[in-house]
Amino acid sequence: MFENSVKAYEEAKEVIPGGVDSPVRAFKSVGGTPPFMDRGEGAYLIDIDGNRYLDFVQSWGPLIFGHCDKDIEDAVLETCKKGLSFGAPTLLETQLASEIVEMFDNIDKVRFVSSGTEAVMSAIRLARGVTRKEDIVKFEGCYHGHSDSLLVQAGSGMATFGSPSSPGVPADLTKHTLLCEYNNIDSVKKCFEDSSDISCIIIEPIAGNMGFVPADPEFLKACRELCDKNNALLIFDEVMSGFRASLKGASGILDVQADIITFGKVIGAGMPVGAFASSKKIMGELSPDGAIYQAGTLSGNPVAMAAGLTSLRKLKANPEIYEELNRKAEKLLNGLKKVAKNNNIGFQGDTRGSMFGFFFADEMPKNFKEVSEFCNFDRFGKFHHEMIKKGFYFACSQYEAAFMSTVISDEDIEACIEASNEIFKNL
Ligand SMILES: *Cc1c(COP(=O)(O)O)cnc(C)c1O
After folding, report:
1. CATH 3.40.640.10 in the chain, residues?
2. Known catalytic residues?
3. 315 C-alpha to center of ligand 1: Å?
């Protein structure tokens, strides 16, 4: 069933570390061989053995309209013909920036980059540059890309200051990253007591990288207040939740406003795009207007901008799709919950717009520690493995979120619930 993928994986491992260009793709936490993909068709992925999968990963978030959306495809093809990159301004960048600025009261200017990692890294430099302070507050379990300052884990003992979570990251850098517990405001208060040099709090307001764990609105409000009191900036990392949780991301469903927002994933519709955005005042400090340096040879790439612009305009023209996406996400989740209950299996889950997630746990976790403690990872691994065999492609880790796309039908969802019925019996 996976013959070609097994062979391809062996060959890939000879020339690419672990056979993949991003570690999660190797299926290490669930086992088995990752299927190598040949193509997408709407709601489906087709691998090189010809297996078809209903896709709940959607390239880890970007493909809210599914694969090969005609409008996005046409825009990309048309733009390609005029050249792939100029390293000079194009109209498309202004158009995409304008679409975003128009949507958010707290955003006047946008700078485009090529990945979420870059967006966050640049946003943090901006926050440090603007406040002239060096420490940052980050939450355990939130992922903000793989830049040095953000690859931290809890330090030894009760220390607030993070230590590197990867070899190659200097401890001198991570000592400026203060690690807190998600949804625990006391841990944030303690950081502000320990350090008077905090430039910003960075947070996924709806976390999708420790599994799906939304922040409590009161907790975010308290973070906002701590920032205001201590002259620090609040950064919402909406690389995943942006244009996903609602048209305006988490910002659209919370009454807390961030000072800087980072975007990625949906903003490029499958092409490499990231962005960070803020007020005129803060963005005014960015080079070339200001002194804070940030740059990129392929930033604002026209083909990528065309994809993002087409996708964003479609979303803005049809804001009602979020309700529909959420209805479908809830339908799937409720179906799975029922199957789990019938089989006496602890199962929790939640949705926000087109983002959703579930845990094999008896109680809904509220932070990374609880995810690690409450969840049955073996059970998830088996579920994942069996679902793949039945043609349902979920993210290959309990620590990931899932996504609904506009092209997934009610029949697709019903088929998924039906398939899970047989699987849960043997979990
Ligand atoms: C995916 C993700 C990133 C990193 O984006 P890349 O494009 O993979 O560099 C950063 N923050 C969040 C919240 C993400 O989900």
Report:
1. 70-317
2. 143, 237, 265
3. 21
Quickly state the pLDDT bin for 159 (edges 50, 70, 90).
low
**What topology does CATH give the domain 70-317?**
Aspartate Aminotransferase; domain 2 (3.40.640)
Whether residue 412 has pLDDT greater than 80: yes
Architecture (CATH level 2) of domain 3-56+320-424 = Alpha-Beta Complex (3.90)
User: For ligand 1, atom 15, which residue shows the shortest CA distance?
Assistant: 240
Distances (CA, A) of 155 to 159, 165, 183, 253: 6, 10, 19, 34
CATH 3.90.1150.10 in the chain, residue ranges: 3-56+320-424
Contact assessment for residue 118 and residue 296, using Cβ atoms and an 8 Å cutoff: yes
For residue 256, the 8-state DSSP code is -
User: Given ligand 1 and candidates 113, 115, 117, 276, which is best to mutate, with the most ligand atoms within 8 Å of its CB?
Assistant: 117
What token pair was written down for 280?
């005129």
| pLDDT tens digits for range 168-194 | 999 999 999 999 999 999 999 999 999
Pocket of ligand 1 (CB under 6 A): 115-117, 120, 143-145, 204, 208-209, 237, 239-240, 264, 274
Residue 1 confidence class, pLDDT cut points 50, 70, 90: confident
pLDDT of residue 156: 59
Here the tokens at position 281 are: 């005042």
- Please, are residues 136 and 260 in contact by the beta-carbon 8 Å criterion? no
pTM > 0.90: yes or no? yes
The pLDDT > 90 percentage for the chain reads: 95
Closest residue (by CA) to atom 10 of ligand 1? 144
